[in-house]
Design goal:
Layout: H1 10-23, H2 26-31, E1 35-36, E2 41-43, E3 46-55, E4 60-70, E5 76-87, E6 90-99, H3 106-123, E7 131-132
Antiparallel strand pairs: 1-3, 2-3, 3-4, 4-5, 5-6, 6-7
Length: about 140
């Protein structure tokens, strides 16, 4: 590489994103009635996927999101699973898992972690909604 030349890691990052996208346990999300919120996207340097469902009985909107933090060369540094819930102005959001993954068992690891994140999101109740927005929102 020439001194001062920029390193283009776009192909490596794109390949990592495709690998994770292909390993997502969509059957598990469907089983628990979680629908995608848009597509994958960059959020503060992490690649993020997000899903939501509305619980008619409690009027709570629950979310599960996966953030993959890539290394500069396109490897996976770690993954994080976040859960959240909203009802009107009240909300909660927390990280429930943050750890490295083995690329050779990515499918199984994402499945197991997603199962745990979904279980925890489904347990969120109105008493867990400890934060309040200073403005009105429209729930999805």
């Amino acid at each position: 590489m020439n001194e001062g030349a920029a390193y283009d890691n776009t192909d490596a990052i794109d390949s990592m994103i495709e690998t994770v996208d292909n390993a997502l346990p969509r059957d598990l999300l469907k089983k628990w009635d979680y629908e995608p919120i848009g597509g994958k996207g960059d959020r503060h340097g992490a690649i993020q996927w997000a899903w939501h469902k509305h619980d008619e009985d409690s009027s709570i909107h629950r979310t599960v999101s996966l953030a993959v933090l890539p290394t500069f060369d396109g490897a996976i540094d770690c993954v994080e699973f976040w859960i959240g819930a909203t009802a009107g102005r009240r909300f909660a959001r927390k990280c429930v898992l943050s750890r490295p993954v083995n690329p050779y068992s990515l499918d199984q690891e994402l499945h197991d972690m997603m199962q745990l994140a979904i279980e925890r999101a489904n347990l969120l109740s109105s008493t867990d909604l400890e934060n309040e927005r200073p403005f009105d929102t429209v729930d999805m």
